[in-house]
Design a protein that fits this description.
Signal peptide: 1-20
Largest sheet: 18 strands, antiparallel, barrel
Protein name: Outer membrane protein
Keywords: Signal
Helix content: under 10%
CATH topology: Porin
Number of domains: 1
Order of helices and strands: HEEEEEEEEEEEEEEEEEEE
Structural class: mainly beta
Organism: Bacteroides reticulotermitis JCM 10512
């Protein structure tokens, strides 16, 4: 049964040790316990957080329950719970709070020689850097053909379960720049939808040793090694989307000697606004003799508009869903381009602890920027504690706020 649970976890994105960005990361998948000798396993996660930002105290608590059934190539997974939050504004003397239930994952998965097919409410992340990292009610199909990898996905996105939605997300409680564009999330199913595919070619028959957290082992190779070259197609449509978005382009994953990795991407976007979108992620992972690991990362997201009336190339991206959300408070996304992100993360596996420093900033007139620090440690393989600090610099604010936040996650 343990191998079956591991198989399930491979398809549930885990990012708990990274900057949470109020996206509802979950450790449940890694803490499921088998029920007797049956094909069922279960887990419970309790989350509590306290934050202070611009004279506001924000508290939240969440209880998540996960139930998994796996039999041969068939898997059914359900994860949901209850959320409560409280916000007190000491300047305006306003207090508010609520409690409500919700779902995070609810899907059926079939993993066979024909490929991997997932149907239902699930976390979908495309194979490229820019396009999609979202919770979608729909389908996700993956299949490897020797050196070629195919991924086809699609479905509908609602504010009740979206990555930047209302359930198990704290982002809207920390909004301090209400003028910033936010993703368009449907009130009901079918109002905001997405569909896409990636087709990746691996020139080398060797396994992919690159991982997004940069903690993979390093092996000696030639100066330039192209791990993946791919094509991407993507569209957003629905009754709330006046002009459907269609995007297409190329992406790659390249090692430039000694474990330096570069992931460039170039996309053409047509829809409400036509634009050329270009982004790149650079990463270097260092493994120290004491087993400590340090990851250096730099990324840039930019665009050039083709049909702007006033020549302004800003805010021309048509897609609402992406794989970005840069910054703990500001959460830069497609409407905020161009911007860049720099980070250094140091991990101590023996202590199960990490420290990460990150800076995000726009490259335009009157830019917004944010500086973040996070330190975290796991205790007894059950309790994870993350403490974070953020400083926001914005010309739209009378004063630059500071964020202090403490989060605890407990699994049993």
């Amino acid at each position: 049964m343990r191998k079956k649970i591991v198989s399930l976890l491979f398809f549930i994105p885990m990012s708990i040790t990274l900057f949470a960005q109020w996206e509802c990361p979950s450790q449940l998948g890694g803490n499921l316990k088998q029920i007797g000798e049956s094909d069922f396993s279960w887990g419970v996660e309790l989350t509590g957080g306290a934050g202070y930002l611009t004279n506001s105290l924000i508290l939240n608590q969440m209880s998540l329950f996960g139930l998994n059934y796996t039999n041969k190539q068939h898997t059914v997974y359900l994860e949901g719970g209850f959320k409560t939050w409280y916000q007190g504004d000491y300047d305006l003397k306003i207090k508010s709070g609520t409690i409500f239930p919700g779902l995070r994952e609810a899907f059926y998965q079939n993993n066979s020689s024909l490929g991997n097919l997932t149907l239902g409410l699930q976390s979908i992340r495309s194979e490229d850097v820019y396009l999609v990292n979202e919770r979608v009610l729909g389908l996700n199909y993956k299949k490897d053909f020797n050196r070629i990898g195919l991924n086809v996905f699609g479905g509908t996105v609602s504010k009740y379960f979206a990555r930047n939605g209302t359930f198990c997300n704290m982002a809207y409680l920390y909004d301090i720049l209400p003028y910033m564009n936010q993703p368009l999330l449907g009130e009901s199913l079918g109002q905001t939808n997405l569909a896409g595919m990636t087709l990746g070619f691996r020139p080398s028959a060797k396994d992919n040793e690159f991982s997004d957290d940069g903690l993979g082992g390093e092996k000696s190779r030639s100066f330039l090694h192209v791990e993946t070259v791919g094509l991407a197609l993507y569209s957003e449509f629905g009754s709330w989307i006046k002009t459907p978005t269609v995007m297409g382009g190329v992406y790659s994953n390249i090692e430039i000697g000694n474990g330096y990795w570069l992931k460039p991407e170039l996309l053409y976007s047509s829809g409400g606004n036509s634009a050329l979108i270009y982004c790149a992620k650079f990463e270097k992972s260092v493994m120290w003799q004491n087993s400590h690991r340090t990851v250096f990362s730099a990324s840039y997201y930019g665009q050039t508009a083709f049909d702007s009336d006033n020549g302004d190339s800003e805010n021309k991206s048509s897609n609402s869903f992406s794989n970005i959300l840069a910054g703990t408070v500001l959460r830069f996304d497609t409407p905020d381009m161009p911007f860049y992100m720099l980070s250094v993360k140091h991990t101590i596996p023996k202590l199960k602890a990490h420290l990460k420093v990150q800076y995000v900033g726009q490259t335009k007139n009157d830019p917004n920027s944010e500086f973040d620090i996070e330190i975290g440690k796991k205790f007894f393989n059950k309790l994870l504690i993350n403490a974070s600090y953020g400083y926001v610099n914005s010309p739209e604010l009378l004063s630059n706020p500071n964020l202090f936040r403490l989060e605890m996650r407990f699994n049993f």
